[in-house]
Each structure stands twice: as structure tokens, then as C-alpha cells.
Amino acid sequence: MEQSIQRFSRKCHTSGREFQPGEVYYSALMETLQGIERLDFAEEAWACAPEDSFCWWKSRLPLPSQIQIRWAPERILIAYLDQCYEREDWGTLNVLALAYARRKLLTINYATVPSEDPATPASRKLVLTVKSSGDNYEIPEVDLNTIDLPAIQADLDQHLFTDHVEDELEQTGEETA
Description:
alpha+beta; 3-stranded antiparallel β-sheet; elongated; disordered C terminus
């Protein structure tokens, strides 16, 4: 029977202290009534494996220079695109369009939208086509000089990138034993 195991906590089970980059830590697996539980321990808190554990291992938290940042799985990226579209977050969608087109997740076509008022110039919209599904999103083109790019980048970093291989497994629905 396959069971899902919780992600690395990044904290010592005994002290609650967060692990620092480059630090050695130990992890142990225990079977509980709720399923398999993972406990992580700082090196100074580790004397031996907990009595009820059935396996354990020693690891080192990578240094920032060793961490490889990965995009979230495609279904997560497209779900985030949907959320931004529902919120009408045009600035973020314009940034996503460029990033996703670069990753070849979608194509961008430009269309001119005539103005109802002859005194107002026509505007442009982007037609985003998701390659995997063929879904289209029509969004107004935004001048990237008028939006808060650092805030958008911080939001995207928080939602769309990971440095954990485990995250990719959990998000694709695969389980580990």
C-alpha cells in the first residue's frame, strides 16, 4: 500500500528551530494511526533514531548556491493563469503571458480593439492560447512600465517556483512510499 509522506518540515522536531543552509539534519519515518509520519531533527538533537521509527537518514540542507529553482508543474501554472484571469489582474497576466510563452506553454497573438469613441485611439489586446488545451484568454495589453513589476515578481516567486523535488511529486498527485 502506497502512502503519502509529508514534506520536509525545515524545522527540528525537538527544538522547533529552523534549519540553516548547509546544516546537517536527520529524518526518521514512523507509522502512526494517521499514517506515515516524518520527523526531522537537528544534528545536536539526534542521539539515535526514535524507538518506533522504521527507517532514518542523514541529509544536509543545500546552500543557496546549490539550490535549483524549478517551475511548478504545468497544471499549477495554468491554474494560476485562470485565477489571475478571474480576478482581472491584467498586469500579472501580461507578465505571465511573456513568461509562459518563453516556456512554450502558450502562444500570444495581438489584436487591435477599435474604440467606440472616434477621439480615443484603438487599444490592443493579447489573445493567449494554451498549447496543451487550446484554451484562449483575451486580455488587455498593459504597458509594463506602468505596473509594479517587483511586486508581481515576488508574488510569482511565491506561487510558481519551488526548490523542492518533493513539491513536484505532491502537486502531480504521485505518492511516495
